[in-house]
Amino acid sequence: MKSNYDVIVVGAGPAGSIAARTAAEQGLDVLLIEKRQEIGDPVRCAEGTGKMGLSQFIEPDPRWICAEVTGARIFAPDGTCIELNEKLAGKEVGYVLERKIFDRAVAKTAARAGAEVQVKTQATSLIKENGVVCGIKGKHRGEDFEARAKVVVGADGIESKVGKWAGINTTLKPKDIETCAQFLVTDIDIRADSCDFYMGNLRAPGGYVWIFPKGKREANVGLGMLGSRFTGKHPIDYLHEFMAWKFPEGKIIETVVGAVPASGMLKQLSTSGLVLVGDAGRVSDPITGGGIYNGMVSGRIAGNVLADAIKANDLSVKKLQRYDREVREALGKQLDRNYKAKEFVVKAEDSLMNSVARSLHGVNFEEMSVPKLLKEIITRNPSMFLELAGLF
Amino acid sequence: MITVNRYRCGYCGACVSVCPRDALDLVETYIEVDDKCSNCGICTKVCPMGALELVEDEE
């Protein structure tokens, strides 16, 4: 490891790896560090993502695609089912990935583009001069080190420290975090081409249960609940209850836990000498929880903005704020809208979810766009007009 | 003080993300709690596994 780079990226998830790759492709000297000893492991993800979005960043590879899904089913608390085709189901379905392999594949593209990659390497603080971030202090396999950089990229996920060290408040409020538990379950009867969602405050308060197929008889079965809805039972407790109800014979071969920022994008994503990407910048979707695509979008924008800034030898706050503007332009509208949607959904009583689902009986979702679906919900549930009309 | 049941912890980092004092850190499979902790207990409520507990300090 050297002592000087153009860019140091802290965290080798998809957002960090794409930032590192994009910067390296433009000739920058890049260090990508990962505090864990294995990139992509342990997994903290339901592993669903869209086909179209993903292929903008990496060629699809059967080695990291477990299943392809063509639609989604949403089950209201009373069991009423709404079936959505792929177009309507949104960009969180399409592929169910094997993140352990996928994350490594993305990191490899950064390495092949010229980035230096170091695992078991943790940032412990920032080097700052006159208020400007100009490197990191850290531990590399337990040994202290210092490395300077023109810009540091914080890609250190939900537990991000890098932003806080630079003075950006990234602390999540309990009402803005979905805390999740998941089992990889084998030998169960599932629909292998559908992502299924179970709503209901008894099953997952302020969240939902998901079943994402990973094969013909295998699936990620997990749930997220809102941090502020804790009343003594943790997600793992709710998950055991769901398993006992739905898959009592299922064999659990992996436990995955994690959390999703449901706060919407941070108001501030950059400061002098530093930008935040991916979950560190809270760019994951507050309603679907999807963060892979959004993270990679923010990583690519960061790589491009940093390359321009470094080539122009202008690393002023103003120059880096172009990153904030471009991420907001690319993702902000959808994140703002979906944050409002999340605030509405988490307050919904089970009876409301049931009546909306029942009201949609007979609607042909094959021919319907999202705005039309919302219009249909409002038409069939006029009392919801004021709450839903502002969302879309 | 906050105690961590290391056999139950899934090392996901949820607790770290909500700590208003930045008193928690996740290093590989190990949650560290430093003396900045104010014992607010927010972390115990977002732990997916129930691995964190707020217990009274010993005299």
TrEMBL record, chain A:
Single Gene Ontology MF annotation: oxidoreductase activity, acting on the CH-CH group of donors, iron-sulfur protein as acceptor
Cofactor or coenzyme needed: FAD
Binding site for a 2,3-bis-O-(geranylgeranyl)-sn-glycerol 1-phospholipid: 370
Pathway membership, UniProt: Membrane lipid metabolism; glycerophospholipid metabolism
Gene3D superfamilies xref list: D-Amino Acid Oxidase, subunit A, domain 2, FAD/NAD(P)-binding domain
Keywords, sorted A to Z: FAD, Flavoprotein, Lipid biosynthesis, Lipid metabolism, Oxidoreductase, Phospholipid biosynthesis, Phospholipid metabolism
Reactions the enzyme catalyzes: archaetidylserine + 8 AH2 = 2,3-bis-O-phytanyl-sn-glycero-3-phospho-L-serine + 8 A; 2,3-bis-O-(phytanyl)-sn-glycerol 1-phosphate + 8 oxidized 2[4Fe-4S]-[ferredoxin] = 2,3-bis-O-(geranylgeranyl)-sn-glycerol 1-phosphate + 8 reduced 2[4Fe-4S]-[ferredoxin] + 16 H(+); a 2,3-bis-O-phytanyl-sn-glycerol 1-phospholipid + 8 oxidized 2[4Fe-4S]-[ferredoxin] = a 2,3-bis-O-(geranylgeranyl)-sn-glycerol 1-phospholipid + 8 reduced 2[4Fe-4S]-[ferredoxin] + 16 H(+); CDP-2,3-bis-O-(geranylgeranyl)-sn-glycerol + 8 AH2 = CDP-2,3-bis-O-(phytanyl)-sn-glycerol + 8 A
Key word Transmembrane present: no
Coiled coil location: none
Residues binding FAD, per UniProt: 15, 34, 45-46, 48, 99, 123, 279, 291-292
Top-level EC class as recorded in UniProt: oxidoreductase
Entry's cofactor comment: Binds 1 FAD per subunit.
Note, other: Reduction reaction proceeds via syn addition of hydrogen for double bonds.
Protein name from the UniProt record: Digeranylgeranylglycerophospholipid reductase
Species, as recorded: Methanocella paludicola (strain DSM 17711 / JCM 13418 / NBRC 101707 / SANAE)
From TrEMBL, chain B:
Keywords tagged on the record: 4Fe-4S, Iron, Iron-sulfur, Metal-binding
Spans through the membrane: none
Pfam families cross-referenced by the UniProt entry: Fer4_7
PROSITE patterns, sorted: 4FE4S_FER_1, 4FE4S_FER_2
UniProt xrefs under Gene3D superfamilies: 3.30.70.20, 3.30.70.3270
Alphabetized InterPro entries for the sequence: 4Fe4S_Fe-S-bd, 4Fe4S_Fe_S_CS, Fe-S_Ferredoxin
Domain 4Fe-4S ferredoxin-type: 1-28, 29-57
Domain of life of the source: Archaea
GO molecular-function terms, A-Z: 4 iron, 4 sulfur cluster binding; metal ion binding; oxidoreductase activity
Protein name per the record: Ferredoxin
Provenance organism: Methanocella paludicola (strain DSM 17711 / JCM 13418 / NBRC 101707 / SANAE)
Upper lineage: Archaea, Methanobacteriati, Methanobacteriota, Stenosarchaea group, Methanomicrobia
